[in-house]
Amino acid sequence: MTDMEIVNLYTQRAESAINETQKQYGGYCTAIAMNILGNRMDAEECVNDTYMKLWNTIPPESPRVLSTFIGSITRNLSLDRYRKAKTQKRSTDKAILLSELEEVIPLSSTLEQEIDANELTHTINQFLDTLKKDEMAYFVCRYWYNYSIGEIARKLNASNGKVKMSLHRTREKLKDYLEKRGILV
Questions:
Q1: Are residues 118 and 157 in the same domain?
Q2: How many separate domains does the chain show?
Q3: Boundary (domain end) residue, out of 89, 117, 144
């Protein structure tokens, strides 16, 4: 079934929309949630929450790229769950991952900051277009899919050192890029 057919099922409020979404994107969503949470039960709950959020969001939303839309929802729900768990129990691996980017991009919490976050997202997407293919792959694997340095190195056939250095340099480039556009002061 195509993405547009799945979106149409949601628009028509057909219960089969969730089943079709699960068939098409269940593994994808689970992988995203597992990479963030590291716990199968929590990941499954986030994936189920993703389906509920899709049901409540489509309509009025009509995503152009369903995989990205679903991935964003899963990622955000997983990060929210992770942050809640983090306040109860510290997890150094994920805290390090988030702190790497917090040095460049502060996390937002108010409505005004959320609006600014949309502009920031657009600017980061433009920045990613300026990167070499391998730099972009490392960056997206690390900060979107939350892969460890070792996982990135294995998946993309590179050394851990090369991945670490590339990520460090890319964060520096991102910081400069954002400063030049007046987004960071």
A1: yes
A2: 2
A3: 89
- Final residue of a domain: which of 45, 73, 89? 89
Q: ∠ CA(39), CA(42), CA(48), 5° rounding?
A: 135
Distance CA 13, CA 7 (A): 10
User: pLDDT value at position 115?
Assistant: 44
Residues making up the chain, counted from first to last: 185
Q: In whole angstroms, give the CA distance from residue 44 to residue 29.
A: 9
- Taking alpha carbons only, the member of 21, 112, 121 closest to residue 63 is 21
Predicted confidence band of residue 94 (pLDDT cuts 50, 70, 90): low
> CA-to-CA distance for 124 and 112, rounded, in angstroms?
18
- Using alpha carbons, list the distances in angstroms from residue 166 to 86, 120, 121, 135, 184: 28, 22, 21, 6, 21
